[in-house]
Write a structure and sequence with these properties.
Length: about 210
Amino acid sequence: MDAKDAEAGIAGNVAIGRELGARRKFWALLLLHTLLTGACIACCVWTLSTLRSSISGSLVPGNAAPRKSELPFSKGIYLNMKKVSDEENTKLHFTVTWNQSMELNHESEVMVKFPGPYIFYICARVTGTNDTMGNLTLEQGKTLASITLRVENNNARSCVRHEGLVSLYEDAVVTINFFKPEDQKYLQLNVLRVGLQYMLGEQRFETPSDEE
């Protein structure tokens, strides 16, 4: 019985040793797998970052200046009518909503710095008796654009939109005027938004002098 007990004890110790060895091997393999997985992820991230930097560098010239804005450079002005006098023929007054390379002086005079084509667009609302009308004009020494504003529905609240193309001279004042006939005293220009937008972008072509 003593010999059998000894053999059983030895066999049990061997089995325990094998089990502990197997566990150590399992944890060692798990740790190695974790390390290899982390190394692969780090390698992939580094490779993608390097590839992205090389592609971006190849698309942008080395001497290119950083872009300040994604929007194209524009020149123009957008105005909101401030007041209308009770005179029949009146020069309109405005406040500036937005402007770039154009200025508003004395609330009524737009200073143009670049010669060439401009988009002239308005949003206006007039009130009065039905079928009464007045004329809105853009002038630079002479009338360059004239828009008829007619009251079609006395209860209408929406603005009427118009646009047109005008050619302006540099260093000259533009005014916007509203004319109404003497017999249409109830006609009122209540709302007016005016925009002037230069169409040649960053290009500028001076008007030839008289000596050329």
